[in-house]
């Protein structure tokens, strides 16, 4: 990654979850800012979820603080107070972590050219989950605009191991795919997959897993930490309620989805990280960036 940055090349880094690819993507930026501090926006980090930006921001501040570097890094999402968002446009941090939606708003302002003219690096995280959907299409428009405002900015794509890296290179490229250096990480972790046959009858319709609440709760009770993922916020609420009806032992089970108050989401996440919860019922708001 450092060699690609030194040669002025964009890069696609693929590595398994927990392989350190996010910090690997930031490494060249940290070195450049440590050697040549500047009060301008140097690196723009984009992730598909605002919760992921918070996690990455926390993990990024740790090495910056330990090395006592004069590098500023901030998040900008729908949860960011308006006063802070206005200040970021006037006095941007060195590293700004945001989402495609927030980037689209930034690019719509009249001072976008001033804000992004010093941009040197654009990091797109979880590229495999972002590019194939509508959010990825929105980001593609933003990337085209950024190519005009900051043609010098190199792009870094971070992705889990995928079977279609050529397609990801095409999405990431601002010109020809020959501009992209592909780097593959190692260190895969073997996962054990098992299909549980529920004790109750599987209904013909309404497949919201409520019929399997007893089986899900038994799995929670048998393990130290369990993540229960569902597709929608409504499903999260219903499954959570069904589990609580069975929770006679008072196990610590929490709920996490995008409609919850920001403070509540943060509280659940911190408790999960510190091992204080037996289970979390969540949507994709908690799905990406877990290691």
Keywords for this structure?
291 residues; alpha/beta; 7-stranded parallel sheet; 3-stranded parallel sheet; 12 helices; elongated
Describe this protein's structure:
There is one protein chain. It contains twelve helices and ten strands. The mean pLDDT is 89. The strands form two sheets. It has a seven-stranded parallel beta sheet, with helices on both faces. Strand 3, helix 4 and strand 4 form a beta-alpha-beta unit. It is elongated, with a radius of gyration of 21 Å. By secondary structure, it is of the alpha/beta class.
What's the layout of helices and strands?
Elements: H1 2-6, E1 10-14, H2 21-35, E2 43-46, H3 50-66, E3 73-76, H4 82-90, E4 95-98, H5 100-108, H6 112-116, E5 121-124, H7 127-130, H8 134-149, E6 154-159, H9 165-172, E7 180-184, H10 213-222, E8 226-229, H11 233-246, E9 253-256, H12 262-273, E10 279-282
Parallel strand pairs: 1-6, 1-7, 2-4, 2-5, 3-4, 5-6, 8-10, 9-10
Brief summary:
With 291 residues, the chain is an alpha/beta fold.
Biggest sheet: strands, sense, closure?
Answer: 7 strands, parallel
Alpha-carbon distance between the two ends: 21 Å
Coarse structural class:
alpha/beta
Order of helices and strands: HEHEHEHEHHEHHEHEHEHEHE
